Amino acid sequence: MTVVVLGVDALDPDLVDPVDHPHLCLERHERIETIVSSAGEPSTHELWPTIITGLPPDEHGLVLDDGVAWENPALNFASTVADYMLPESIRTKIGAWLLNNTAEDAFRVPATYYAERGISTVFDGIASKAIGVPNYVVDTESDDREHQLRRNMGDLFERDPDAKGGHTSANVAEFYEQCLEMMMIRVARTRRALRSRQYELVFGYTSGLDLIGHVSHDRPKVRNRAYGELDQLVAELAGDLRADDTLVLVSDHGLQNGLHTDEAMVASTTPGLLEGVTDVRDIRGAIERAIRQSDYSPESLWDEQRSGASAERVAEQLEDLGYM
Ligand SMILES: [Zn+2]
């Protein structure tokens, strides 16, 4: 069997309704505590490493004010200057903004970061597939359609400190379509990895709902539609599960009125899995319990002996026929 985790950035427990969104609630759902960063709100940059390691940010080391944001190539020069000119608190705020700015390539810390520091993750030692997980980048050379869309949003998603949610969009309808495309791409990749039957753990992630939340605070209809569509996408993913597979939905924080809130959520098709899960640090343990409970044997479509004639028998027959 396969354990499938779908990470949905900013999936908010207050906005998920068991009647309207049965597939976002699955068999059991819980609101859980999350961790506020030094910028004053929960941070995507810090929290996905927490979810995959079970460690708080100061232990896994990927924290907003560690300078990671400043390693962004676009800011190499600015950061040198900033070291001298800006107080730490302002640097942290700007760093948080940089990491959320779609024009830059954010959350690209390679997967090797963890092993190099002796930090274990939920992916270690099993047949696993990580799809777009922030700051766990398996192949730093490649990106997918969600990455490309995020990088090229331009004025569809622009930082505006004066706007209520801190962002504006030049065209909300087109912005919505692009965010939904991001969500669909990542759900589709997650489904594909599940259907391949090659993994004990498939962990997909999408940031589309977070982006929508940042600009749709004064458009409840848009936000509700996004939750409704996500519910349908998760239903399609759940349709690919076999009886002994497990699906877990998880978020890093909520999002209301354009701002991250201090609550996250988790849901699962296996209710018992969520026993004792009250905090984002508990997610890793729950995923590992699900993996331990399962019998896993990969379906070897490509490795097994081809049925019918082996290579020797083909050679014999060709010999018999006088071709060899
Ligand atoms: Zn986030």
Overview of the structural elements:
By secondary structure, this protein is of the alpha/beta class. The strands form 3 sheets. Strands 2-10-7-1-6-3 form a 6-stranded mixed sheet, with helices on both faces. α7 (about 145-150) packs antiparallel against α8, α8 packs antiparallel against α9 and α8 packs parallel to α10. Helix content is about 40%, strand content about 15%. The model is unreliable at about 75-80 (pLDDT under 50). It contains 12 helices and 10 strands. The protein has one domain (about 5-300): Alkaline Phosphatase, subunit A. It starts with a strand and ends with a helix. The structure holds zinc ion (ZN). Zinc ion binds near residues 9 and 10.
CATH 2nd-level architecture: 3-Layer(aba) Sandwich
Strand order of the largest sheet: 2-10-7-1-6-3
The helix content is 25-40%
- Tell me the structural class: alpha/beta
Keywords:
324 residues, binds zinc ion, two-stranded antiparallel ribbon, six-stranded mixed sheet, alpha/beta, 12 helices, Alkaline Phosphatase, subunit A, 39% helix
Q: Would you summarize the structure shown here?
A:
Helix content is 39%, strand content 13%. The chain is an alpha/beta fold.
Helices, strands, pairings?
Elements: E1 3-8, H1 22-25, E2 28-33, H2 44-53, H3 57-60, H4 76-85, H5 88-100, H6 112-116, E3 128-131, H7 145-151, E4 158-159, E5 167-168, H8 172-196, E6 201-206, H9 208-215, H10 220-239, E7 246-250, E8 254-256, E9 259-261, E10 263-268, H11 283-292, H12 311-320
Parallel strand pairs: 1-6, 1-7, 3-6
Antiparallel strand pairs: 2-10, 4-5, 7-10, 8-9
Helix pairs in contact: 7-8, 8-9, 8-10
The structure holds zinc ion (ZN).
